[in-house]
């Protein structure tokens, strides 16, 4: 890896080779990718690649990962006393678009492929947008039960709960006919698959209803046990039907914690076409993907997602526990005062065929790459269309705050001016000052 391959060395300090965004190519994790018209990854984002917060001992994301591992290791034991689930946390976040989308049956024109929502190195290579990108390769490698933790990348707005890099834990389990029906009376007469069936809200066309119901029950049971282990016995859980191209039926799990329902994961019965293409066509499986920051923020009372990237000892030291099971409540660092500054500009004219030449995410991206960690929030305040010319203008408020010190007016003004300048030169907007 780019930073260090040794798991136990501190990897956040000291000089490290920097990823390079060149004229014709982008270098990341020691490989070089030719640029093309899809390239939109920024240096700020590439800086995060290789940080591997989930592998830094005692980091809160590592702590959650270790607790989930401990639960699966102790609760699911194979025939010879070995852990049933293998754990993978070192797969490169650089994946092909084929892995991230096609392998999961996401159609070529699906909105989740939008350039505005993802970080592309070029047309065929990207930073993974979810850990599901590895489902097919791990199933193909012969695994029947695995957990996979990793950093994932999505272009997003900036606020206390959204950050363009976060971490997910994926889980997959496959079952043979015998594994599904062995505990059922006369189960040997039942089958996972049926010919000539129909797809219904309950099941896929090739699956038998009885197999799906048992696998779905195992999935929900596994996840309810995991969440109860993390949150304690009083936690309330509910299931919401939803849609993913790679599972059917699909569910979201919501957890009621301190009065609020929050969505913690997506899951479902794996699409058989995916399982077949991974060479496990005689098995049926479930999969889930959960967000680690979400869980850590609630479990440890971490108020702002940007804190996960802090290298401030006052943050990190609070998670250095002798025992991963010990409860922690984060004591907030003193909050330094915010400063805000507004920016207004005329948008560029729409180009041919009504194609948008400016998107809000482009602006958020630009603010993030110029203002970095100083930017706490960007929000659209106001929009205006000139009655005569039809020109559109927007006004954004940028809230600046440093997590670790008080910012000066002067410092903020300089950054703000750089943002104004960059918006004009890079996005073709025209400032209204
Ligand atoms: N990959 C999905 C997401 O990021 C979550 C998911 C994983 C859903 C596995 C179903 C099965 O939202």
Describe what this molecule looks like in 3D.
Residues 62-322 form the Aminoacyl-transfer RNA synthetases class-II family profile domain. Belongs to the class-II aminoacyl-tRNA synthetase family. GO terms for molecular function: ATP binding; phenylalanine-tRNA ligase activity; tRNA binding. This protein is α+β, with helices and mostly antiparallel strands and 433 residues long. The protein has two domains: 53-89 and 130-306, Bira Bifunctional Protein, Domain 2 (BirA Bifunctional Protein, domain 2), CATH 3.30.930; 339-431, 2-Layer Sandwich (Alpha-Beta Plaits). Helices cover 25% and strands 26% of the residues. It is built from eleven helices and 17 strands. The strands form four sheets. It has a seven-stranded mixed sheet with strand order 4-8-9-13-12-11-10. It has a four-stranded antiparallel sheet with strand order 15-16-14-17. Strand 15 (375-385) and strand 16 (392-400) form a beta hairpin. It is globular. It starts with 19 loop residues before the first strand and ends with a strand. The model is unreliable at 1-16 (pLDDT under 50).
Summary?
With 433 residues, this protein is of the alpha+beta class.
Low-confidence stretches: 1-16
* The level-1 CATH class of the largest domain: Alpha Beta
The profile of the biggest β sheet is: 7 strands, mixed
Present as ligands are: phenylalanine
Structural class based on helices, strands and sheet pairing:
alpha+beta
Region (Disordered): 1-20
Family: Belongs to the class-II aminoacyl-tRNA synthetase family.
Domain FDX-ACB: 334-432
Protein name: Phenylalanine--tRNA ligase, mitochondrial
């Amino acid at each position: 890896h780019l930073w260090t391959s040794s798991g136990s060395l501190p990897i956040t300090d000291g000089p490290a080779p920097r990823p390079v965004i060149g004229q014709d190519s982008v270098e990341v994790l020691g490989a070089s990718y030719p640029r093309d018209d899809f390239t939109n990854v920024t240096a700020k984002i590439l800086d995060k690649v290789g940080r591997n917060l989930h592998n830094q001992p005692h980091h809160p994301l590592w702590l959650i990962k270790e607790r989930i591992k401990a639960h699966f290791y102790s609760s699911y034991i194979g025939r010879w006393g070995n852990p049933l689930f293998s754990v993978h946390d070192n797969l490169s976040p650089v994946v092909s678009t084929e892995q991230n989308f096609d392998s999961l049956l996401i159609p070529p024109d699906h909105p989740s492929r939008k350039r505005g929502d993802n970080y592309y190195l070029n047309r065929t290579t990207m930073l993974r947008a979810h850990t599901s990108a590895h489902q097919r390769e791990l199933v193909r490698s012969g695994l029947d039960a695995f957990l996979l933790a990793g950093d994932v990348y999505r272009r997003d707005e900036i606020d206390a709960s959204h950050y363009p890099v976060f971490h997910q834990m994926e889980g997959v389990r496959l079952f043979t006919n015998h594994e599904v029906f062995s505990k059922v009376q006369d189960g040997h007469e039942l089958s996972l698959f049926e010919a000539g069936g129909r797809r219904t809200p309950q099941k896929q066309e090739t699956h038998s209803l009885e197999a799906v119901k048992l696998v779905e029950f195992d999935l929900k049971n596994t996840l309810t046990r995991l969440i109860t282990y993390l949150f304690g016995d009083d936690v309330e859980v509910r299931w919401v039907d939803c849609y993913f191209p790679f599972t059917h039926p699909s569910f979201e799990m919501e957890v009621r914690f301190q009065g609020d329902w929050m969505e913690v994961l997506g899951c479902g019965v794996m699409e058989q076409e995916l399982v077949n293409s991974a060479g496990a066509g005689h098995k049926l499986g479930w999969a889930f993907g959960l967000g680690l920051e979400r869980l850590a923020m609630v479990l440890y009372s971490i108020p702002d997602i940007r804190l996960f990237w802090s290298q401030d000892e006052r943050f990190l030291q609070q998670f250095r526990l002798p025992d991963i099971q010990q409860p922690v409540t984060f004591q907030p660092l003193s909050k330094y005062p915010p400063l805000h500054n507004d920016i207004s500009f005329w948008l560029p004219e729409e180009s041919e065929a009504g194609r948008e030449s400016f998107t809000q995410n482009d602006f958020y991206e630009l603010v993030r790459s110029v203002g970095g960690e100083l930017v706490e929030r960007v929000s659209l305040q106001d929009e205006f269309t000139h009655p005569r010319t039809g020109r559109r203008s927007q006004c954004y408020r940028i809230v600046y705050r440093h997590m670790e010190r008080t910012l000066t007016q002067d410092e903020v003004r300089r950054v703000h001016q750089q943002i104004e300048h960059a918006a004009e030169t890079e996005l073709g907007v025209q400032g209204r000052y």
